[in-house]
Amino acid sequence: MSEIYDVVVVGGGPGGYNCAIRAGQLGLKVACIETRKTLGGTCLNVGCIPSKSLLHASEMYETAQNDFAGMGIKATVELDLPTMLAAKEKTVEGLTQGIAFLFKKNNVEHIFGFGKIIDGTTVDVDGKQLKTKNIVIATGSEVATLPGIEIDEKQIVSSTGALSLTEVPKKLLVIGAGVIGLELGSVWRRLGSEVTVVEYLDHILPGMEGEVQKQGARLLKRQKMKFELKRKVTGINKTKDGIVVKTEASAGGKPKDIETDVVLVCIGRRPFTTGLGLEGVGVTTDKRGFIQTSHFKTSVDSIWAVGDCTPGPMLAHKAEDEGVAVAELIAGKAGHVNYDVIPGVVYTKPEIASVGKTSEQLKAEGIPFKVGKFPFAANSRARANHETDGFVKILAHAETDEILGAHMIGVGVGEMIGEVALAMEFRASSEDIARTCHAHPTCSEAVRQAAMDVEKWAMQM
Ligand code: FAD
Ligand code: NAI
Question: Which CATH superfamily is domain 156-267 in?
Fold first, then answer.
């Protein structure tokens, strides 16, 4: 117990590692405890990165199969799943090692082990006690399960198992039409599975702009992803031939059995704080287990919390921004997160991206707004690329013209949403985007045209 740290971070995911690196940059004495063998948390190890690696590879596979011929390219295409999985692992390995390098560069001490908070200034790591002025909890989240359904990561898998299936299942049943269901469902559908998604609600991607939900469902159905909406899973029977999933209408009744080979359970994630010792030190959680914070501080003055274990969107960049803000606050700076401008991207094909409020939210809040919309079918670059599905929709305040939200579906919109996020951060008006010169021909011109359409002067449709 000789050293006293300024900050001990528990958890080495995007919330924790970014907090630790920023603290190191600001000259604080910092350690980051991580129980996993590698740094990077859910995101780098079993989340954002491996899923995007498989999404990219499977998209290339499908493009080569379906779209090359129309562009005048003749190719024989064959799936080599072990190599695809190995390439994913290599990316993960490189990036997780990259965090270890950044820790060294920024004087962050990486401690391997399981952290338990003893009191407001002490953390135990497998029997060794660290003394610190501040503790940052960044322990992330874990998969939510359905009662009576046991995940074995072989036949009944969470996202983690679905990232490493060694064979393409003939049939894959996905429970939950949220982000994981649509992304990983897309991966395996592209690789050859018949994918059926069972969703409790009457729409996909809850919380997204209604028009985007509808268009997204239409496009995914066109790709032969099947949806069983307004339906819930009531049980799973393993048989010698596979799996029978028992479902019924969400409102009850209308039972239907669906046969499948693999089930992916992705009905959300819950905060992970098991074994952390929260109760013993008086850190309060809400009834769903999220750590309660005010300006990132928990109910104990020296203990902070960031990322998936706290309320808000479970996104890597939200965790990252919170981690950075806490390090800055501890260093006496003005740490801040603008929760009105946190983009979200679903990496299906086409991508779906959103920032700010949806029209449904604005209506419910009684905020008057104008809408500008532009289809990719009228964008020259999208047409040249044969990728014309989707649109950009911009919502601006009816009186001030300030941009309040943007919702997009189309190839590459995951990159384009950054433009609107930046504009919103500067409290730009739709006219600011409409009058910004955009390079031609680019898909981002659709963003400008949608902004022009707010005042009904879009010129390319
Ligand atoms: P985590 O990344 O979960 O990290 C927490 C870490 O703390 C873990 O490594 C854990 O081992 C460690 N830990 C826990 N308890 C202790 C303890 N007591 N002692 C020591 N260590 C401990 N988000 C996006 O923004 N974009 C995406 O494309 C995206 N894709 C995703 C795909 C999948 C399949 C999944 C599952 C998630 C995805 N997410 C994505 C969500 C993203 O991964 C999380 O929002 C993000 O990882 C949260 O970061 P965090 O630091 O709060 O927690
Ligand atoms: P989710 O919250 O996105 O979606 C879960 C879906 O399951 C919802 O549509 C919900 O209505 C449905 N559902 C819940 N219970 C059900 C039941 N019993 N039967 C049928 N349907 C049911 O959760 P998901 O997809 O598991 O993802 C977890 C988190 O990971 C998300 O919060 C997301 O933010 C994050 N993530 C982000 C990604 C990204 O940013 N691209 C990619 C993957 C995950």
Answer: FAD/NAD(P)-binding domain (3.50.50.60)
